[in-house]
Amino acid sequence: LEATGGSFAFRVLTANVILVLFNLLPAFPMDGGRALRAALASITDYARATQIAASIGQGMALMFGFLGLMFNPILIFIAFFVWIGAGHEANATLIRHSLGGVPVSQAMLTEFHTVSPTDPLSQVTNFIIAGSQIDFPVLEEGRLVGILTRKNLVDGLSEKGPEAPVSSVMQTEFATVHPYDMLDRGLARHQECHCYTVPVVDDEN
How far apart are CA 124 and CA 131, in angstroms? Predict the structure, then answer.
């Protein structure tokens, strides 16, 4: 029993060491790829550093794929994982970099329907049928007090009926951005909240 226990502990330790070493490989999405990018960013700009680190990672993915064909098929899976991770990180960084100098005010929608907290859900349904808007800012005396999403609307119609007020199903906690914020910040807020719409609110709301 002691020998078996020792053998199991050794296998667990070996597996943990392998995972740590794998995470240190200079390829995205592992920590080693981010460390490589940080080192490269000290001698070039962040976007270029990401591109170089991603290329190195994809080169390693090709090597893993080649070794997988000859020795262990599991390396092909690892190669696919590294290749996709490197490409995704490079594309995401390129998008953020290209949006960094563009203010939200130049890309935001300026024509859309708004609703009141007291409006019935049936009225919002008519807006959706008549157009393509699916999320609605909820304004009370010109102040943004909530967001009504399509999911909120569908759930509200099912649970409360078409005459229920918007206030009974709207979201009262939501992310916002300022018109003078850069689009990369707006994109980050959008990704953080996992929401379809991020309201743009100025100093006067």
Answer: 11
